[in-house]
Amino acid sequence: MAAETGTPTTLTLKSNDDELFSVAESAAILSVTIRNMVEDGCAGGVIPLDNVDGKTLASVITYMNGISAIPADEEKKKSYRDKFLSDKDFETLADMVLAANYLNMSCLMDAVSAKIAQVMEKKSVGWVRRKFGIENDYTPEEEAAVKEEHKWTFEGVETDDDN
Amino acid sequence: EKIVAASNYKIINNIDNDDDGVDKISRLPDDILVSIISRLTVAEAVCTSVLSTRWRGLHKYITRLDFSPTSKQLQAFKDQEKKRGRNKKGDDRVFEEEVVRSCASIIDRTLDSLKGGAALEEIRLYLPWFQINTWSEDETWPIKRWLYFAFSKKV
């Protein structure tokens, strides 16, 4: 981090729909993308984040502030993440994982990926298709071929739904 | 006329009750889908290939390999252990080696099918001690190979 005096400790982030957000540098640098900008000295003015909308960025900043306020205690951070994600619908989670990817925030990316994966755990292919509205565009022959190719996984995977 | 603040109706809307039938997940880019299925066991991740053509082959790029057994497999291991306690040597050992070999071939096939030179974050293997124990020196080579693989992928 730049150690010059006068280095701003608050950054201004701009979403792709032109909303401005003030965030403490110490929280914002959870994003490696932002940290690199700070280290390169290009974070003086407004930082435009062209792939994140205001609603998502607000959420991400809430997360940045929340998680950086927790001292180095992985257990507490994990429970903060769980709570933070517990009331998010799929669309919000999808926006957040895209933002986390763009901002290079591995902890958020991991947490959201795990949250979405949790829904698929121990579920049959049919259940997952219905849950996420995935249309099966295989022909019956193609589907049979893919199943045959990965036969061992169907023998091994146990599901707790009724298919 | 009374307007009730929306916050009075605390409808918890989260991912568990969020299924409007619109396929939003398949619209996510490949690297995000890979990140999601990387959190499943290898068997579950491979299964996602069957969902639709969009998902086919994504499992070859997963960054974590979790070979944890299902409870069904665990039960088979346990039964085997029990049987081992009752019987003396002989056929058991042959059977055990078969079990391990079949696990090993799954692991080998998976490692072979992985695409790209991406670093892996984690490999989780479940190797019951009693089975490894029964392997003679030269038979432990698959484990060595997996470890080499793990090192080469910077796990």
TrEMBL record, chain A:
Domain SKP1 component POZ: 11-65
A Pfam family the protein falls into: Skp1_POZ
Molecular function via GO: cullin family protein binding
Keyword set, alphabetical order: Ubl conjugation pathway
Gene Ontology terms: cellular component: cytoplasm; nucleus
Gene Ontology terms describing biological process: jasmonic acid mediated signaling pathway; protein ubiquitination; SCF-dependent proteasomal ubiquitin-dependent protein catabolic process
Top-rank taxon, per record: Eukaryota
Family, similarity comment: Belongs to the SKP1 family.
Full protein name: SKP1-like protein
Organism: Erythranthe guttata (Yellow monkey flower)
From TrEMBL, chain B:
Superkingdom classification of source: Eukaryota
Residues in F-box domain copies: 25-56
Protein source organism: Erythranthe guttata (Yellow monkey flower)
Protein name according to UniProt: F-box domain-containing protein
Listed Gene3D superfamilies: 1.20.1280.50
InterPro entries, alphabetized: F-box-like_dom_sf, F-box_dom
Any single Pfam family the record assigns to this protein: F-box
